[in-house]
Amino acid sequence: MSWPGLETVKAKILSERLLGNFNNVTRTWYYLKVYEKHPELAWSLLAHLVSRNAGYQMSDLKRFEYWKTFINGAAQPPISEPFRTILKEALDHFETVEIQSIFAFLETGNYLIYHDVCPQLEAYDWAKQYPDHADELFDMLISPPFDCDRFIRDKWKEFYHNAKSQGWYPEWWFEPAVERHSFALIINEQNQIEDRLVHDPHNRYLGKLGAVIGPQRIIELIGSRGKTKLLFPVAKSLSDSSPDHLLIYTVDDFSTLGSRIDTGRDLFVGLFKQTDLQRNLIERWVMSHPLHMGTRTNYNPLNYSTDFSALWPGGQTFSPPVIQTSTSSHGWPRFPGATLRYAHLHLKPVPLPISVMDRSGADVLRWLSTPSSPKPLVSTPLSEQDEIFL
After folding, report:
1. Which tens digit of pLDDT belongs to each residue from 337-372?
2. Source organism's superkingdom (predicted)?
């Protein structure tokens, strides 16, 4: 194939970024497609799994918002006792605007990460097709309209040339270079949201919802009491892809850049570097259940349901899809960026305030190394699974 030219490549990457950044479902699907095509990019599998969790949490928030509507008597028919008391006690510490703000925070953070990393993943794909233009493609990333951090541009160049010389790391789980590059991507993605979302006093991306309660309150709600948990289904066997149990990771602290990076490093090691069997069973479940819609019925249809009647306490728990589907109208908007609440995401992006390499106190060398004592994931049977989020 002849080289199409850099401007043509840019246009194709911009189109791919726009198509993939509609919502949680499209982002989650994209990360899995990248991993299937380039398995040496193990970060993409981790991103897929974490993005699934964001969808589950958004589904929980939608259920909470419905519950609030019934508790406040705004829905007909009004909810009767003892259900009203049960729901009020469960959600009394939440205001509706707080529920909406947490959703906006999750949607915005994942939007920003995808907006930055999609061109990087696409540039790698193009570089494998046109190796003579590899450096040109990666240099393209730090210029408009992509404006990636020069830190991650340099890491992509290093990884690409090493991977090419090693046959693209067919057994990537043994390769320190794959782990190191995955950690570099984790560092980069968390730096993307540090000053533009997590600690932005101007709420430039969080918008009006952030101005109402402030990002620090949102972070407090997400990370308080150690109740924010990430879950990862594990298949019963290589021949039976139905989920056997969950691996649970409890997020202790979401407020600092270092703590979020450490969470990503813990997850990479805990999911992919323990045993070959565990890694293969996690991948077996993912590949056999590629259609992520946000609902927890994806991994536990026994205890969760998309049926609206499951809103009432007792029996199955209501877990709506993140976006509207042909069979359910109980999800979030199909294209959040096209709605008034999230239109600001698609306006002119806020420039990255500071490179990782220029950030005071950044412990990049430690962050790029294998954690000395990673926090373990806890194996939990599906039958014992309680509410995960909040």
Report:
1. 555 556 666 666 788 889 999 998 889 999 999 999
2. Bacteria
